[in-house]
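Worked example

This section walks through a single chain of length 182. The input is the sequence exactly as stored; nothing has been trimmed or padded.
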Amino acid sequence: MKIFANSKLQLQKTNDASKDEWKSVAVALGSNIGDSYTILETAIKNLAQIPGIILEARSNWYKTKAVGPPQPDYLNGCVIMQVNMTPDLLLASLLEVEKKFGRVRKERWGPRTLDLDLLLYDDLILHTPNLQIPHPRMRERAFVLVPLAEIAPNWVEPVTGRSIQELAKDVDCSEVHLLTNI
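Given that input, the structure is written out below as tokens.
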């Protein structure tokens, strides 16, 4: 069972994958082009309107330095959702929302209006050409682990068997700053 920090969330049992069952998922959001705060807030509303998605918890926003080439700082956060769709369909939905916000995939680690990363899908471990779950770099990224630990500290990452809170203690979080002046 996964236990979430947010009291609105219920304990979830993980079962064998079935598209008719609701699954807990974690998604990271980021933006560093345009009005990032408004983009991220609107993206969450867009996600919540997709059939088969129920928003359950969201983190605060955090300002972080960009990874990769010189570019503006990012705003990052995470959401926990319940979904009754396969990982591939969820990924397609996330990519469609990114596209609505003008996301163009030109440069790896380049600036972006909206970045949505599927981090966790219940306790599933999946490696396909188009999708890896858990997200392969989430364990290295403070800008993912800090907001995720805020809303799901006890969620166990299935590859390591360690909680998100434990993983967050292993990374340098000094460049992840809570957004306070909204």
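What to look for: The chain has a mean pLDDT of 88.
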